[in-house]
Amino acid sequence: MSFTVNGQDVTTPDDPRISLLDLLRERLHLTGAKKGCDQGACGACTVLIDGERVLSCLTLAVQCVGREITTIEGLGTPDDLHPLQAAFVEHDGFQCGYCTPGQICSAVGMIAELRRGGPSHVTRDLADEVLTLTHDELRERMSGNLCRCGAHNGIVEAIATTFEAWDHDLHEAAR
């Protein structure tokens, strides 16, 4: 039994009690996902499973059999940053950087959720076929990822700018 992490096959651990977070950090040495609260309250451990954001501290590794896990290490490299990574740098979306990998993975998943039409608690019109990423919508959708340093304004700006660029590219491609 196995699953894929950042394009590499990984054998499921023998111990079914190992969390995905512990497997990533301790066995695979992928330390981007952080162990913040270890209770699913802070979002520092957020990774993508089949493109959806998941708290890896609350996910058992055995639950990932046959699935594709993407960590911050799988999104970009120092020489070829993912657009959200570059935006976080440009807009000062981090201070200490502890929450940054989880914030970026969560933002990637959040944008995919938005594009699929999944509403949030502040979505004004559920009948809209295309949801827009307003300031309130973005903050609500990212509310599960905390930043103790207070870099939320930079985080929001980085995500909003990247989404606008992607949205513009989608509209241009549709023409």
TrEMBL record:
Query: Is-annotated flag, keyword Cell division?
Result: no
Keyword list, A-Z? Iron, Metal-binding, Oxidoreductase
UniProt xrefs under InterPro entries: 2Fe-2S-bd (IPR002888), 2Fe-2S-bd_dom_sf (IPR036884), 2Fe-2S_ferredoxin-like_sf (IPR036010), 2Fe-2S_ferredoxin-type (IPR001041), 2Fe2S_fd_BS (IPR006058), Aldehyde_Oxdr_Iron-Sulfur (IPR052914), Beta-grasp_dom_sf (IPR012675)
Under the heading Gene3D superfamilies, the entry gives:
3.10.20.30, [2Fe-2S]-binding domain
Q: Cross-referenced Pfam families, in alphabetical order?
A: Fer2 (PF00111), Fer2_2 (PF01799)
What's the superkingdom here? Bacteria
Keyword Protein biosynthesis carried by entry: no
Xref: PROSITE patterns: 2FE2S_FER_1, 2FE2S_FER_2
**Which CDD domains does the entry link to?**
fer2
Q: Which residues form the 2Fe-2S ferredoxin-type domain?
A: 1-75
PANTHER family according to UniProt: OXIDOREDUCTASE, IRON-SULPHUR BINDING SUBUNIT-RELATED-RELATED
Q: What is this protein called?
A: 2Fe-2S iron-sulfur cluster-binding protein
